């Protein structure tokens, strides 16, 4: 009898031990990794596939990503088709049924986000690289990230129902943090915008639309010809003229944007350009949502002060 | 075939109107690949021609399987004729860390063969590919070898990417076939292990080795072995560097136990100047290793080599224009002079529909 009991405990031990292990979570971006860590706490071991300085639209399906995904329990993606050119290949190559689309471990956190720039009517390639579900760069809006944390919570709850109380409390704390961050940035920006001259901005690609929208800043749109299509000389000249007319103070672009177009735009319009990260970076000075928000805010405020 | 295409297109049209249709999940893509060869040595084929037109349908079949149909039109006797180049079901949900394909597909052998010709980084296939994987050996019509069977890929449970692909196909016909072929002595099989090295952000090196064995209806046994290398360095949208190379060795024994050994390879180096313009240079070599003079039985050396500078303009992800100059020389001992073929090649590739996937 004692031998049977011993064998039972021996067999049961790995099961108990595996329950104690944190869930292995993969996110596509470091922004999402921060949210999952905040909501999941010690229950998750989270890694981001991207470092944060890449152009998320133009990634290659790196085989090393498939290895990381093969061992994961959950996958969190930004969605709205932003990862569609490289992620499906990696998911397939991982051979991990838990994280395939349609499985419980495949978590598209954009489902509750109120998308901006959602195209109406028929869409085709003549419109450029348009995302049918709307502009996917919502990670620059702390209020959108609050909504994302709810989707993260839903996914984690289905994997860890026994941790519901802890997860819910973590999500509330994260959401409060985002509200507070939003308020702080808003206050900083508002104080700088009191003045007789209206202030507006322009973006190379519409990666800052959520940032401008959430803080009530005016953007006159993109320098690009169409989404994902670099501007022609005529387009640059036209946008430079509009930027002058509309008192644009700054052209904002991602760090991976082609600087030759930005330099030309600056030359034509006398509007300075700045390139900043558009995702949290795993390493470096913008390794958290708060630091990234502050860096973009500093860049904007600096432009207002000096131009 | 045309009825199948019409059925699918009709289904897709319905699907767009009625989102609950099961066909709503089918993605469709098309690719047109046209070339204009301008030969300095033989102007008989100097004309613009549509090399292939691909119509690709893919999507989930059910909760476990995905499906893909690839209908390709090729130029046959002056007419574009549609054929089923690929048609397979696949799953990466059945066995952990595994992918399975069943049906007709491009053989997962080496590097170049796993891509359709319109996705290659150059216009024409290197001689080694034309000889070993795409007979008959036509310069601009060479494609990737496809066959019907099963392919299984397993990702080893390691921290590093190491994947092994095993394939068994019926082997009735090899290369670009217009007929069913004859029953082989045993099925064709191949194995392709590969590993990947991450070399800093945006940089990676994929190394592979391949082995294939055929024993065809005429009792010819062929063993094909090779190694492949792909290095990519990406900065944002720009593919700054691409280095792609394959070396292959073939050992063939015919029904009279006569042995033929051939080897060849290519190296392609491409530099991305910006997001639109890429310049590359390919060097090819190919040789028979045990060729002999029929009269004396003495060793008869030969060497084919080529240099192919290539300039690519990507207007967008969906439109590509390419200009290449191919300078091929074949030198055989005992022949009075070397055979030279010089050709300018213009290529255009248009992708329609679904976003092309960014394979490494």
Q: What is the structure about, briefly put?
A:
Helices cover 46% and strands 12% of the residues of chain A. Chain A has helices at 2-20, 30-40, 63-70, 87-94, 142-159, 164-192, 209-214, 233-245, 259-269, 289-306, and strands spanning 23-27, 44-48, 74-77, 106-108, 200-203, 218-222, 248-254, 273-276. Chain A binds chain B through residues 51, 53-55, 57-64, 66-67, 70, 81, 84-86, 88-89, 91-97, 100-102, 125, 129, 228-230, 256-258, 260, and chain B through 60, 63, 66, 90, 92-99, 153-155, 157-161, 163, 194, 196, 198, 201-202, 204, 206, 232, 234-237, 274-276, 316-318, 352, 355-360.
Spatial strand arrangement across the major sheet of chain B: 1-2-3-4-5-6-7-8-9-10-11-12-13-14-15-16
Strand content of chain B: over 45%
The end-to-end distance of chain A, rounded to whole angstroms, is: 84 Å
Overall structural class of chain B, as computed from helix and strand content, comes to mainly beta
Give the total of beta strands of chain A. Answer: 8
Walk across the major sheet of chain A and give the strand order: 2-1-3-4
The helicity of chain A comes to 40-55%
Mean pLDDT of chain B: 89
**Number of separate helices of chain A:** 10
Content of β-strand of chain A: 5-15%
- Counted beta strands of chain B: 16
Largest interface, C-beta closer than 8 angstroms, per-chain residues: A-B, 40 and 46 residues
Overall shape of chain B: it is globular
| Rounded average pLDDT of chain A | 91
- Rg value of chain B: 21 Å
């Amino acid at each position: 009898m004692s031998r049977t009991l011993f064998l039972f405990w021996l067999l049961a031990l790995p099961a108990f031990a595996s329950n104690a292990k944190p869930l292995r979570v993969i996110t596509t971006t470091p922004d999402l990794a921060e949210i999952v860590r905040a909501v999941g706490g010690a229950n998750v071991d989270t890694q981001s596939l991207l470092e944060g300085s890449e152009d998320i639209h133009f990634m290659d399906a790196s085989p090393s990503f498939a290895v990381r995904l093969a061992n994961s329990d959950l996958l969190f993606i930004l969605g709205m088709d932003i990862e569609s050119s490289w992620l499906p290949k990696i998911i397939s190559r991982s051979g991990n049924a838990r994280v395939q689309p349609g499985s419980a471990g495949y978590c598209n956190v954009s489902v509750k986000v109120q998308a901006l720039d959602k195209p109406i009517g028929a869409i085709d390639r003549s419109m450029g690289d348009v995302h049918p579900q709307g502009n996917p760069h919502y990670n620059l809006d702390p209020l959108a990230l609050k909504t994302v944390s709810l989707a993260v919570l839903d996914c984690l709850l289905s994997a860890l129902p026994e941790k519901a109380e802890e997860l819910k409390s973590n999500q509330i704390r994260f959401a409060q943090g985002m509200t507070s961050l939003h308020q702080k940035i808003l206050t900083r920006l508002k104080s700088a915008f009191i003045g007789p001259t209206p202030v507006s901005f322009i973006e190379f690609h519409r990666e800052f639309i959520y940032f401008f929208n959430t803080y009530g800043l005016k953007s006159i749109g993109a320098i690009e010809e169409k989404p994902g299509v670099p501007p022609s000389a005529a387009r640059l000249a036209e946008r430079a003229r509009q930027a002058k007319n509309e008192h644009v103070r700054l052209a904002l672009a991602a760090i991976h944007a082609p600087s030759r177009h930005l330099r030309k735009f600056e030359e034509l319009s006398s509007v300075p350009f700045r390139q900043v990260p558009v995702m949290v970076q795993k390493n470096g000075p913008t390794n958290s949502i708060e630091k990234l928000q502050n860096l973009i805010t500093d860049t904007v405020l600096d432009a207002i002060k000096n131009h | 075939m045309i009825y199948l295409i019409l059925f699918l297109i009709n289904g897709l049209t319905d699907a767009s109107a009625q989102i609950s249709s099961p066909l709503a999940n089918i993605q469709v893509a098309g690719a047109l690949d046209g070339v204009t060869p301008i030969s300095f040595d033989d102007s008989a084929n100097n004309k613009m021609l549509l090399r292939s037109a691909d119509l690709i349908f893919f999507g989930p079949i059910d909760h476990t399987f995905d499906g893909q149909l690839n209908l390709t039109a090729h130029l046959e006797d002056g007419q574009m004729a549609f054929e089923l180049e690929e048609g397979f079901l696949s799953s990466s949900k059945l066995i952990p860390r595994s992918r399975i394909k069943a049906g007709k597909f491009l053989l997962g052998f080496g590097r170049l063969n796993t891509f359709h010709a319109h996705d290659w980084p150059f216009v024409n296939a290197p001689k080694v590919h034309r000889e070993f994987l795409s007979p008959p050996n036509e310069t601009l019509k060479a494609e990737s070898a496809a066959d019907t069977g099963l392919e299984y890929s397993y990702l080893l449970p390691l921290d590093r990417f190491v994947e092994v692909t095993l394939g068994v196909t019926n082997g009735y016909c090899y290369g670009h076939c217009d007929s069913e072929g004859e029953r082989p002595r045993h099925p064709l099989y191949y194995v392709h292990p590969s590993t990947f090295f991450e070399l800093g952000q945006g940089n990676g090196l994929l190394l592979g080795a391949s082995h294939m064995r055929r024993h065809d209806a005429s009792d010819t046994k062929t063993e094909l072995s090779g190694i492949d290398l792909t290095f990519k360095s990406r900065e944002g949208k720009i593919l700054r560097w691409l280095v792609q190379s394959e070396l292959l060795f073939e050992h063939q024994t015919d029904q009279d136990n006569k042995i033929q050994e051939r080897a060849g390879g290519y190296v392609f180096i491409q530099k991305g100047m910006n997001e639109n313009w890429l310049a590359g240079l390919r060097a090819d070599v190919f040789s028979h290793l045990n060729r002999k003079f029929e009269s004396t039985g003495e060793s008869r050396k030969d060497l084919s080599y080529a240099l192919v500078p290539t300039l690519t303009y990507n207007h967008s992800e969906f439109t590509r224009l390419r200009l290449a100059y191919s300078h091929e020389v074949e030198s055989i001992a005992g022949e009075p002079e070397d055979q030279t073929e010089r050709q300018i090649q213009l290529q255009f590739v248009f992708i329609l529909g679904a976003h092309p996937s960014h394979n490494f």
